[in-house]
Write a structure and sequence with these properties.
Layout: E1 19-22, H1 23-41, E2 52-55, E3 61-64, H2 67-73, H3 79-95, H4 99-118, H5 123-145, E4 147-148, H6 154-164, H7 171-190, H8 199-202, E5 203-209, E6 217-224, E7 236-245, H9 265-288, E8 293-296, H10 302-311, E9 314-316, H11 321-331, E10 335-336, E11 348-358, E12 361-367, E13 375-381, H12 384-406, E14 409-412, H13 416-428, H14 432-455, H15 460-472, E15 478-481, E16 486-489, H16 490-493, E17 496-498, H17 499-517, E18 521-524
Parallel strand pairs: 5-13, 7-8, 7-10, 8-9
Antiparallel strand pairs: 1-18, 2-3, 4-14, 6-12, 6-13, 7-11, 11-12, 14-17, 15-16
């Protein structure tokens, strides 16, 4: 049979209800999904960005201007939108800042690339030119504009941290959060901690509503949202000998529920005595080792509490595993799971362990610990929403300082780096299709600066034109001052951005945009149907 006589039998490959988009349609859907995410966060960009009120499926509200929080709260279904959200989460995990910038730049790159494809330029040419432009731009940023700093210099750290705190907060609050964040990081760095991955191990952040953000404090040691288990225990212990137990001081429960029957009252007494002896052995062992403070990851029985009171031992129960690890790091104690392992060398020490009232609730503070690098930042706020936002700001400040330790370079802020990049890309454009693409990429960074200016209430076109004119005259550190609404020398003004954060943002935005550019087919499977007979909650 000849090929012309072959009959083509149509067949359905995809499951019924599946949706498929090809080429132009797929690109359009991806662009629309990207635009929805962009429109969600673009007004939050910059030091005077707006805040968002997010309400989850349980009705809980979050008020924030932090891009990472906005992205984590969004529930999206479109695959392109999910890709951008996942990239934002990775950015936050890696450097802890720049999430809003990542989302904005990703969309702007994708949007410009879509216009180029409509002009007939192939995605491969766009991707290659984008990649080369960003790579060369970053090299120029580091060699020509970036300033090497000493990560031990608190003045530079403070200026960089202040640039990450929204200007919508009053100056006293901004300075308080910056000072505490810088002091915490400085103490860790001074103790010779060069591996920045351990910042989170040495620094604990807690929040408590009540009071003002100005009441936020840095504690040398560990603060626990726990109270002492018995009112007759000592509320303050000096020169504490500390035991950390990952075992209960109570009767162990059996894996299965059993009911015991006793034929004689003496048997009941013997059974109770055996239980009490199990707890007495633990408390007596603590007493023999002259332990006066014990932290237990599990429970402490009422009878065990009575024994601890008699021995004058302070006890806390149900301490979180992460807190136990912080206590071990701070006090030098080892977490013990078996009574036989509780020896002198497993104990830790602290100058003071004290229960105090904080925000109307009892907290326990372990201070003057041997490991001077371990600290707790106790963030305060008038209510839960304010305390949550203040905690996010503090964590961003710490994350930025971590990047400065990893790569000790800063860039002038206020959009100066983006204007510099825009000029470099325009200079690289030498004609041809690659030149058209580089000019398009240059416009991406222009649009980014204009968005910051717009969010601050300035005239985007006017400010960008003046910035470009200043840079053309050689004023490379000229940037937009959102506080005054004018152009300033950002270095003299103390407006710095972390080079590491900027580099990560540009590369992540490039990678995300190029992935989207490579998509020419979107196949979405049909949603699973509920089993027959169970629709609407009906039972078989």
């Amino acid at each position: 049979m000849s090929s012309s006589q072959v009959k083509v039998i149509p067949s359905i490959i995809l499951k019924e209800g599946s949706r498929r988009s090809f080429e132009k349609e797929a690109q359009l859907y991806n662009l629309l999904a990207s635009e929805v995410i962009f429109e969600t966060v673009r007004s939050a960009l910059g030091p005077l960005g707006y805040r968002k009120i997010l309400v989850d499926t349980f009705g809980d509200t979050t008020i924030t201007g932090d891009g990472a929080t906005i992205m984590s709260e969004l529930e999206v279904e479109h695959p392109a939108a999910k890709l951008i959200v996942d990239a934002a989460k990775s950015q936050n995990k890696e450097v802890g800042d720049g999430v809003t910038s990542l989302v904005v730049l990703t969309h702007l790159m994708f949007k410009e690339a879509d216009s180029l494809m409509n002009m007939g330029i192939h995605p491969s040419i766009i991707i290659d030119a984008y990649t080369e432009g960003v790579r060369r731009g970053l090299d120029a940023l580091k060699s020509e504009l970036a300033i090497r700093i000493d990560p031990r210099d608190p003045d530079v750290l403070r200026k960089t941290v202040l640039s990450t705190i929204p200007l919508s907060l009053n100056m006293a609050v901004r300075e308080r959060l910056a000072d505490i964040s810088v002091e915490a990081a400085k103490r860790i760095i001074e103790k010779g901690v060069e591996n920045t991955s351990v910042f989170d191990e040495f620094l604990k952040t807690e929040k408590k509503s009540g009071g003002s953000i100005l009441d936020t404090q840095l504690i040398e040691g560990v603060a626990l949202d726990k109270e002492i288990v018995h009112p007759d225990m000592p509320k303050r212990v000096e020169n504490a000998r500390i035991a950390l137990l990952d075992m209960p001081i109570e009767v162990k429960k059996t894996e299965t529920d059993e009911r015991l029957k006793f034929s004689d009252a003496r048997m009941i007494r013997e059974f109770l005595k055996t239980e009490q002896k199990m707890m007495s052995d633990i408390v007596n062992r603590l007493s023999e080792l002259k332990v006066n403070v014990v932290f237990v990851q599990k429970g402490i029985d009422d009878y065990a509490q009575y024994l601890l009171v008699k021995k004058g031992i302070m006890g806390l129960r149900r301490v979180k595993k992460s807190d136990m690890e912080k206590l071990a790091l701070a006090t030098g104690a080892k977490i013990v799971s078996v009574l036989e392992d509780l020896t002198e060398d497993k104990l830790g020490f602290a100058g003071i362990v004290e229960e105090r009232k904080t925000g109307g609730e009892k907290w326990t503070f372990v201070e003057k610990v041997p490991n001077k690098a371990v600290h707790t930042i106790l963030v305060r706020g008038e209510n839960d929403k304010i305390a949550d936002e203040a905690e996010r700001i503090v964590k961003n400040c710490i994350a930025v300082q971590r990047t400065l330790v990893e790569e000790p370079y800063v860039l002038p802020g206020g959009g100066a780096a983006e204007v510099f990049l825009s000029r470099k890309l325009a200079e690289m454009a030498k004609g041809g299709k690659e030149g058209i693409v580089l000019e398009s990429l240059s416009r991406v960074f222009d649009s980014y600066v204009k968005q910051i200016v717009a969010n601050s209430g300035g005239d985007p076109d006017e400010v960008l034109t003046e910035l470009k004119a200043r840079h053309a005259k050689g004023e490379r550190t000229a940037g937009f001052d959102a506080f005054s609404g004018g152009i300033t020398n950002t270095i003299e003004k103390g407006m710095f951005d972390s080079y590491r954060v900027k580099k990560t943002v540009y590369l992540a935005a490039l990678e995300t945009a190029t992935i989207l550019l490579r998509v020419d087919d979107v196949i979405m499977a049909a949603k699973m149907k509920p089993p027959k007979g169970r629709e609407g909650g009906a039972e078989e």
